[in-house]
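Re: folding output
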Amino acid sequence: MTLIFEKSFERTLSQLVGQAKPGQDIEAWTFADRRSRREAELKLAEKGIRARIRSAYKPLVNAFLEEIDLEGVEAIEIRYPVHPNAPDNRFRLEAYPLGAMVGDRKIDFFARSDSEFHYDVVLKSTMTGERLVKVLAPNRVHIDAAGETSVSPTGWLVTESGTAGARLPSDYETLFEDAIAAVTGHDWGTTEPYFGELNIRVTLPAADEALPVGDEVMSLREALHEDFYFSLLEFFQKKSGRPLGDRGLKPGQIVPEIVQSEGDISVRIETKPLSTGFSDGPQQQIDVAEEPLAAEQIEAELDAIGGVPFEATTRSGRTVRARYIKGRDAAVMISGGQHANETTGGAGALRAARRLAALDGAHFTISPLENPDGYALHQRLRKGSPRHMYHAARYTALGDDLEYRTEENSGAYLCEKKIRIQAETLSGAQLHVNLHGYPAHEWTRPLSGYVPRNFAMWTLPKGFFLIARYHSGWATQAEQLLDKVTRHLGAIPGLLDYNNRQIGLYETHAGETGFRIINGFPCLADIDDRHSVPMTLITEYPDETIYGPEFIAGHTAQMETVLSAYAAWQQIMASS
């Protein structure tokens, strides 16, 4: 272990209370939960100070939760700023999920021509006419941890009525900047991977606030996890000479652990050896499993499917297990868990494989947990805050996306990728059904421009959708496959309605999805010769991180996709 940095920070709310003078009127915006802000206001009131402390994170949504009265309001207009250093819809995205929070009231968003950091909210009523509310959205233009220009939310303080106020560097921002500076200033050498686990442990007194829309929650701790993880990936991408967003980077396992505290704010950064075990949960009846399966159960389910076992070993020494069922049909590769925080694919893959194995002539491979190192990390992190999306568990213990690892670029670390190479060699499959997921609630990076860099299309949920990637000359088969699978999925009770609700809210806040709609399902299809298998069907279910009936619905949709794709592939290959 190597300790890299350790520091405690005074809470911004404590500073405001301690430094305020009787008779002052204070307006402040900080990164703090609602209860903490209200408690600080009461302490200031005891000193004879009138104060209003608002949230610097998602200020418009918080204004509707805390201050704006919608009694008698029938329609709402939101006029948002557009800044030249941010995506055009940046402040419209930040208003999510307001479109679903205002009930049946009509809500429209209009871009303003200026870049001033505020929203103009027009509340319309046939009884009282129009009322204009100005909602400040403090932001700063800065160079972020990746060396890019960003427009990011920031603390703000007004101590004299009628003045514009000034930036208030908050505890949240200062902790992040100091921690990033410590990592970027450390000597990491020149050889990847640079460490086993790079652990960033933060204590932060910020409670999550659930919103009355789907799986949505405002979480300063989750947002900080995401910003730390991707900011450090970007630093190591630049250090290695790679472009931002390169998924072949192998720095090691980056693990931000953002823990809720009673009041203290601190950070400790150190390197650690990789873990080797699992934090398994209970055994479940797989068809109605309400949470991600235990690793031990995944292994047992594979054993029950039978076939020829094959395996690979991860960097930590964990085992990737798979099975080959040899038969007369056109072979199909089935996989899940490439991104280990995408939780429904593994259960869906196993449920489908159990049914396929009972068919006469079935021919397939099944590898339901391709990234066990990431899966073990996800188990560990979920114990603290089970509903956070935890993208630190997305990639392997090498820190890369295993799909982008090849025999040519892996060096001594082919590891997990061997499982796909063996699956293709054993089966000769020309179709790979690769089960994935994405965030079930909003994904943000508030200290690096708010919208996740290189992942903007994934920032809001937009239903269950499919991606077909295929070699040149396989377009016809791809179109046939998408048509047949989406027709099958459309018969699942409630799934189309679920999609329509999420897509409608997405379009309210982000604009057009950019997808084709095939039989009611959003789809993408394009040529991609990077895959060795000529046809890849990728599922994307909003499953980071869901439980209970929502989890069952997710892995059921994954299972049905596999079953319908397998049946469709038999028809397509027979006809061609």
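--- second protein (sequence, then structure) ---
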Amino acid sequence: MYMRRLVEFAEQHADDLPPVGYARKNYQWFVVITHDDRFVFIQAERGEQRVIPNRSRSSGVSPILLTDKAEYVFQLPKNPDNAKRAEKCHLAYLKLLKECYEATHNEAVQKIVRILESKNWQLPDGMKSTDVILFRTEAGDFPHEDNKVMNFWKNFLSNTGANDETDSICFICGRSAPAVKRHSIEFSLGRERTKLISANESAYLSYGLENSEIASTCFECEQKYGQALSYLLRKYANKKQHGGPHMMEIGNVTYVYWTRLSDPEFSGMFKLLSDPDGTAVQRILSSPFRRAENYATLNHVCILALSANKARLVVRDYAEPPVWRVKNQVRRYFDAQQVVGAPKPASIYLLAACMYRDGRKEMQKEDVQDWMNWALYGKRISERIAVKIVRRIQARGGMTWIQAAAIKSWLISQNKEEWTVDLDHARITPSYLCGRLFAVLEAVQYEAVKGNETIASRFYAAASSTPRTLFGLLMRNSKWHLNKIGKENKGYEVRYQQRIQLITGQLKEFPAVLDLQGQAEFALGYYHERQEIYKKKEDMPADSADVSHSNKAAAEGE
């Protein structure tokens, strides 16, 4: 389905895409054709690009019309050992130019052939055999942009790149036509150059079909889907901007998206998932959702998840949800992650990385997909995600705001239950209350001892998984800690006692074991209570509040 959608996109945006057989590529040299049959060499700016003829080629000899490497155009070998290959490449290049002239009678092409055959040129210093050459007339015209030349190149590729022996049914358009032997357009994903359809080993053979014939595609469709996907994968020219107009990269997964009808608002909303802007997110959350307006449009968005694997493009997921549904879910995604103490909206990358010590090295592609499936389609976040976050919190003996946002999002995705942004006094589940109580006992212990280590660093894992085995000991120790606090600040002692009594009054008994959902609720209760305690301390007079930097950092989740 996504291949058909890419072809549709190419047909709808024909003016924005290169012609068939052309691609936007870098080149290193202009060769100006003078009126007196000479070549003038001009070095191009670094990184300069232009839409030029293009084709796929392996180790064989396959010239490219009116633009190619210096090895083909000027018989410049990579080294003395490659002189014979350079000669073969040059002869094939000349043959192609002559065929082009015979079909088009283009004067510039005729001149190029005449000059190349006369050897009336001298290569400039610094030209390499791999440098790409581009011909231009003195008037500033490019021969490869002539309509007749473009048609010749299209027909040439169609005849040489397809299997002429038998026609096949194109799996994209359904027409009977010769199948392309090798797909010509490569796609850049990260550091890899990839192809969507290719096979070059016996393990990939199917019913005697080789190379790209395993998925028979006619030349027109191969060019259209390739041009469309190349266009959609383009990045912003400004490197400070993340992604591109129709793509974003998160970890090792690239998401490509386009609407079947133009919808600029959707593109802006999609970008917020990778680089959220606080003001824009707040505008989304505060804007009313008008069901009638959103249902009125039947426009759909095409979302393609891609990754690279050994020079091949892996399609990880594809969906075509209605635009209104995605907009509504993105709003829900940002709403679900709101927690007290969060300095900014969380991106997909931050949420996927918060369960690792070093997300840049350890994060997996499946993590990104899980969060994107929640953000775009409302799918339940995998339990695997929650397990990793909970274990990371237990190993650390504390949690950050981003982990709290991830835990809250996971809980909401599981049972559609609403959760408050900050402390929820109405929630009296044993797991949530145990998390709150543990946060109070930690604050009491810290206030009494003033050490660098709190009970969370030692006992959080046990308290959050088997509360009954630990809370008796912690409650007994808290009495000693409260007595010590009372000797220095009676107000603190009273406040902490009241808080402990309020929570234990609602807690009938300590659970023996907490399951995954219980441990997640424990974590959120712990985080909410810590934020509440820190907020209360800020409201106290300066002479009675003595909060060290380490305690403040722990409360904020830094």
